[in-house]
Every structure is written in C-alpha cells, then in structure tokens.
Amino acid sequence: MTTYTDRHGATLPLPDAAADARVRSDDRSHVFHSWSAQAAIDPLPVAAGRGSTFWDYDGNAYLDFSSQLVNLNLGHQHPDLVAAIQQQAGRLSTIQPAMANDVRGELARLISEVAPDGFEKVFFTNGGAEANEYAVRMARQSTGRRKVLSMYRSYHGSTSTAISLTGDPRRWANDTADAGAVRFFGPYLYRSPFHAETPEQEAERALAHLEQTIQLEGPQTIAAIIIETVVGTNGVLVPPPGYLPGVRALCDRYGIVYIADEVMVGFGRLGEWFGIDAFGAQPDLLTFAKGVNSGYVPLGGVVISDRIARAFDTMPFAGGLTYSGHPLACAAGVATFEVFRRDGILERVRDLGERVVEPTLRSWVERHPSVGEVRGRGLFWAVELVRDAETREPLVPFNAAGADAAPMVAFATAARRAGVWPFTHFNRVHVAPPLVIEEEELRRGLGVIDEALAVADEVA
Ligand code: PLP
Asked: Which UniProt keywords apply (predicted)?
C-alpha cells in the first residue's frame, strides 16, 4: 500500500485502485461473512484508520460514528494501545491460562477496582458471547437450576447459549439450542408493552410482568436473569428509574442470579466504568468485552461477585479456554485503563453527551418529521425514525429487508457519501462514536446525520 504522512504525523493510504481490487477479490472469493447471504454483500475495503476516522483505498475518509461494532472506544490505532501490544509481543506473546501472568493479573485487579463493591474476581474469555456463556454456566452450576430469563429485544451473542437467550430475529434460525431460555418483556416506554404513559408506570408494570413470569416458570427452576444494562443493538433502551433495582430485589426474593450484560456499555460508553453504576443496582455477575481494550485483541470476561465466587472455592468450575486472559489482549486492557485515567475519558464522555449530543438530537425531534424519539446516555444514543409521529408507525417495518428497508439504506448511503459511517438497525440510527472523538468531529458528524435525515423526512 502506498502511503503518505499528513501534517499530524498520521500515515494515510494514497488512493490505490489495484489494492482495492485485490482486497475485494480475495474477500469475495475466500472470506465467509457473518449474518449475510454471501452473494448479497459488498463489504467496503478499508485501508487504514486513525482516531475516529478510517479510509478506503480510494482515499475516502469516513468518520466512524459506530465505533466499528461499538467496540472501538479509544479509536483506531491509539498509540498507547499499539505500543503496549508491541511490547508485550516482544516479551511474552502467549501463556496458557493455568499459569499466572503479570498483565493478566494486573488487568483483573484493575477491573475489580472499578467494578461494584464485592466483585474481586475476573474470568477472561475471547469476547462477549463467551462471557455470557460462562456467566450462565456459573449461575447454573452455583444454583443447581437450569432456566435463564432474558428480554425480548436483546442481544447476548451468537454462540449456542448466548443466541438462545437473544430476544431478536438473530435467534430465529438457532432457536432450539438451549431449552432453558425463557423470554420476557423489558421496559420500552415509546412502544410500551404495558400501555404505560410514564417511566414510573413502565418500571412498575415491567417488574410486575417479570415477577409473574418468574412465578409461572417456577422460581426454583430459574438460575439467572440476564439483562443488558442499557439494551444496545435493539434500540439503546435506557431502563426507567427503579427498574434495575427492582430486578435486583426480585432476584434476591427468589434466589436468582442477576447477570448484567455490559458487553456493549461497559468501559465508558455511558460515561461510567460500568453502566450499572448509573442505575443503582448491583448484579451478581457482570459481563464485558469490546471496550475493555477497544477490540485491538479479542477479549471479554465475567466479573464475579464474591458470593458467587465462594461457591467455587471447593466446587471445581467446569469450564476453560486456551486463550483465557491472553497476554496481548490483557496488555491492551491495562493500557486502556492508563489512557482512561490520564485523559479523563469518562468525564469527556459525560460532557460531550450532555453538552453536545443530547441537545442536538433533541432538537431533531422538533425539526424532522421522521424523528419519533431520541434516547441515550453518554456517547450511546438512538434516533428512532417513524412514518408518522402520531401513530409512531416505524419508518421501515420490524425486521425490514430488501425493498422494505429502502429508506434506511438511502439514509445510510447519504451519510456515507458525506463522510460519516453510521450505525443503522431497522428503523433506527445509533450515534456511538469513539469516546476520543474531537468535539469538532462530533459536531461535524451530527451535522451530516442531520442533513441525511432529509431522506427519511421525504418518506415521513
Ligand atoms: N452482548 C451484547 C450486549 C452485545 O452487544 C454483543 C455484541 O454486540 C454481545 C453480547 C456479543 O459479543 P461478541 O460479538 O464479542 O461475542
């Protein structure tokens, strides 16, 4: 790849049509992609990235408003993370999990220090789905019960148990993998399953529904309830005040393990180390991945409350992974903590969220007929698009594909042409840029989305 160095010292690709053609050809001939009919996709070849921007081989720059898959919290090619991985690779690239290792131990200690009180131990995995698999296994082994309750409109990953617990269409083709999965409705005031009109009513009725579900399923059969602290890909659904503490109380009443899935929101997305810190509830197991090291090397894990950890003092834990606590991944995690603390990342997420994103998005509800609701926290927001603000009919139908999805495809195309890579899902645009995004970039990207919404307004 031919490159040049820009005035900030960034190495950027020069437009290179031959490289673009080669990458496209290798990819289409040999790479089997996730979640797609293989003939139907045309992935963008990406040549380089830096900070909040990545470039294709034609030299087009894209502001990464989706942080890849909401994992790139510290942006592309953060020099501290790159250096930490390089140094670790030069010293000890891999070591099996039954041996002790300095970066693995250090990262586990750092995580336990920012986790809720009474969480001392960490089990490392290679990603988010595995983290949820192992959390469920811990809950089942420690309670001797089997069922796990999860929400409709949730995503917990794509391995067997995690996909069975998922409450969205990604589960449909994998539905029989885990007979112990039972789903319930969580709070979603804009489209309330409980016909509630206030957040208080929504919380109260959602908790009553959950308690009935527990009673009808048989509390003595239920090992765990798993909940995304803020539901991510299914709509950035922020729980109403009182809901998560109410879940905690139900888990206490019925002896159920509360698993908080923080794979997407953990490590700063909401302006807290862990999202749960903002909602006044304490889980028993807390799962993480993505933001722990921005996905530079695959890493996830389960933070374990002392109560659950004690159950395994004498009972052997039945599980393990060759790459659990991989040194390269952990080195990037340790560096992530250093950057967060030195650069005040949590503070800037709260500041940019409250001062820039929230007021801008709220103004769209007034100005764009297609914007039904905006919701979020920190640097994690959703804009829900509708055909009709009164009836709240979604801009595209639930699970839209093909021609049905055309207005959202047109919106995304307009945003990309103007240099912003958005995150869209059904009738929503999510705003989830890297936490290191410059204020000027953030305002510019929001401006592009604002203009691209004209495409949706034409349909509304
Ligand atoms: N849980 C949540 C809330 C997620 O958002 C995701 C991925 O997006 C996962 C679990 C699965 O993580 P992974 O893709 O690393 O397996």
From this structure: Aminotransferase, Pyridoxal phosphate, Transferase
In ligand 1, which atom is closest to the CA atom of 265?
3
| Segment 265-300, tens digit of pLDDT | 999 999 999 999 999 999 999 999 999 999 999 999
Question: Which ligand 1 atom is nearest residue 154's CA?
Answer: 3
Average confidence (pLDDT) over 142-151: 98
> For the segment 423-434, what is each residue's pLDDT rounded down to a tens digit?
999 999 999 999
CA of 157 to the centre of ligand 1 (A): 5
From 126, 155, 164, 297, give the residue whose CB has the most ligand 1 atoms within 8 Å, as the site to mutate.
Answer: 155
Structure tokens at 54: 């990545």
pTM assigned to the model: 0.97
Residue among 35, 154, 156, 285 to mutate when testing ligand 1 (max atoms within 8 A of CB): 156
Indicate the DSSP class of residue 238.
P
Q: What is the CA radius of gyration of the chain?
A: 22
**What are the residues facing 124 on neighbouring strands?**
301
- Specify the 3-state DSSP secondary structure of 51: strand
Residue matched to tokens 């009738």: 427
Specify the ligand 1 atom closest to the Cα of 233: 5
Confidence of residue 7 (pLDDT cuts 50, 70, 90): low
Task: Using alpha carbons only, give the angle 132, 136, 140 rounded to the nearest 5 degrees.
Answer: 170
The structure tokens listed for 438 are 């410059």
